[in-house]
Amino acid sequence: MKGQKRIKVLMAMPALESHTRGLFTVASMFRDAGMEVVLLGNELPERIVDTALQEAVDVVGISTYCGSPVVFGRDLLKYAEDKGIKKNTAFIIGGIFPPKDEPTLKEMGFCGVFPPGPGATREKIIACVEGAVKK
Amino acid sequence: MSNQRTTKDILQEAAKNEARIPLYNPKALEAIREEFEKWKATSVREQERKNWAVTPFAIMGDEIPRKLLYTPLEVADLDYVHDLGFSGDEPYTRGIHANMYRGRNFTIRPLPGAGSPEEMNSRYKFLISQGATGLSVALDLPSVQMFDSDEPESRGNVAVVGVPVDCVQDWEVIFKDIPIDKVSVSIVTHYPRNTAILFPMYLVMAEKRGIPWDKLPGSVQNDFIMENVVRGAIEYIPPRDCFRIQCDNIEFIRKEVPLWNYITLNGYNLRENGTSGITSIAVAMANGIAIIDDMKRRGHDADWVGERIAFFWSFGNDFFSEIASLRAARRLWYKIMKHRFGAKNPRSMLLRCHIQTSGISLTREEPLNNIIRAAYHALAAVLGGTQSLHVDTYDEAYSVPSERTLMPSVQTQHIIESETQTTLTVDPLAGSFFVESLTNEIEEKALNELAEIEEMGGIVNAVESGWLHNKIARFTEREQQQIEKGIKKVVGRNVHQSTDAELPTIEVSEYDEGKASRMIEKLRKLRKERDNAKVNKCLKELRDACKRGDNVTYYTLEAARANATEGELRQAFTDAFGTWKPPM
């Protein structure tokens, strides 16, 4: 990606999420792909959006295992819209959630939804992020 | 502590003074060696001669190379009585009870799922009517992470993965009309801080019902590795303070609630988070050693505290290695208690454990395959001699287990117990050249990792310095690459993908905002009606006790009596100790 700006990613998870393995694994995938990663960890949706704004990131990656990804996702994207960063930021989400939440998360504005499995390989996650940032 | 002798030094010293009686006579071994070399040269393919030892690559595996064939030569100095003995007898390699499963089957301990306090109360009553003699409490995420149901962080999480407990009142609802002096209750408080908060609330509930504390059976987890290393969190307190709360809880419970198990050294979540089985053994034992050292400083001997220490392990795919690791862990803990701490009470030398089958080893692809995987994990746990078992459900990679998927997991255990006939004979793999050799290797490697931790000054230093965080990060990164490259084979993911992998129905309960609002309303009422001046006084006294170095659990108890909430107590701890950032 010579001449291009490095993609900057914010990696975060809901305030109370206790599982960290997914977050760290995907964060290191982005680093390996030459992207700049801001590892925020656990935070409230508002704080995640504020940080995304301050750090001027291209991508916000969310890892979630427990709790409701739909309730969290809706709050997150609403704040993002309020702060005017929803349009020019790519939001992706991965982790453990039921299949029926996948379309809901996509509809609300996550451009990449990655439950574990064949759809969540390193290549596919990177491609999704690169594609979304180009747009 | 760094200038002190390591456990390895101590055990080596002890071994020197013991006369060994080898099982195999030198002449027989010589004959075997001669025949073995002949056989290897003539009957074994060149390819196998070259790759005699192959490294196995399993998820969370120990990667101990496997030879093509094991003979007495691998365990040439085996001393039967000294190394293996008999079940229920030193060194407990063969199991902690003489009669093992004939005496008492492994406890089938499924987690009870999620719901409001009222729902959990009816579920427990149902379970008891079905003959349950033990109950488990899985807490919801806010309660695990010590947030009240009405804090903004809790939004979307109330009563999702477990039951919410904010205050004494919730325990009263959950256990209404349940004979907690007869039924043992395992409260899955992972962390020292939430143990120090929620367990005293449980005691106050018992007190209000007139049930004496010395009649209460049950357990808490209470492991500072869980709080400082194996979790994501919005705030941490420093490891040294968290370790102290862990020990305060132990001392308090040991004195005040004599039947209660005050610590479960959790190798499970650590290993699932990203370590080998050997590291999970070494870390759990390093914590156990630090606890006993700390209790000695407080004037309690090793037997006083050792008696009720329990362990919790993850069992994964590397079948024989899992079995051998439990045998090795039992022998190692016995040696630590006996030689390092001079324990006299046999009970404190026993490694009692609960095993949960590995969740990280399960896949979202072809989920029914997970039933097969978990069955192997469970069989290994039984062959290894566990006391208690939880088999993961096949929808683990989809959602919080539903009641429907719980059934095959419970039945897996019943099949092992009732159909496989594997529980009739104790430690059936003992004497296998392979299994004994693996057992020795795992024990040696765990002891080496333990020595590494001790040379850093012990487990608290190893956490403070980031050594353990780092080790996990390196392990998971490497494991991820191994899976991507197909070095670690995962059926359905990177090998043998099925072409028509139809998904079974995965039932998922809807998030119910109503449960959260009822909890929030209850808190609003509580805060209005209680004596808030008294609450504030108790919180101040807790903060002072934290700073003074008094046993904090006596102070959280007073605060619980005054109806303080979990979130308020968390905050008091954080105010007193300050926050800590994990060294990532």
Description of the molecule:
The complex is a heterodimer of chains A (135) and B (584). With 135 residues, chain A is an alpha/beta fold. Chain A has five helices and five strands; from the N terminus they run βαβαβαβαβα. Chain A has a five-stranded parallel beta sheet, sandwiched between helices. In chain A, helix 2 (45-55) crosses helix 3 (69-82) and helix 3 (69-82) runs parallel beside helix 4 (101-108). Chain B has 584 residues and is α/β, with parallel strands linked by helices. In chain B, helix 9 (192-208) packs across helix 24, helix 13 (277-297) packs across helix 18 (433-455) and helix 15 packs across helix 18. The model of chain B has no long low-confidence stretch (mean pLDDT 94). The interface between A and B is large, with 37 and 40 residues.
Biggest sheet layout of chain A: 5 strands, parallel
The side-by-side strand order for the widest beta sheet of chain B comes to 3-11-10-9-8
CATH architecture call of chain A? 3-Layer(aba) Sandwich
Question: Can you write the helix and strand succession of chain A as a string?
Answer: EHEHEHEHEH
- By DSSP (H or I, 4+ residues per run), the number of helices of chain B equals 24
Output the radius of gyration of chain A.
13 Å
Structural class of chain B: alpha/beta
The whole-number mean of residue pLDDT values of chain A reads: 92
CATH fold assignment of chain A = Rossmann fold
| Helix and strand composition category of chain A | alpha/beta
Largest beta-sheet characterization of chain B:
5 strands, parallel
**Shape, principal axes of CA atoms of chain A:** globular
Assign a percent range to the helix content of chain A: 40-55%
SS summary, helix count of chain A: 5
The percent of residues in helical segments of chain B reads: 40-55%
How far the N terminus sits from the C terminus of chain A, by CA atoms, comes to 16 Å
Beta strand % of chain B: 5-15%
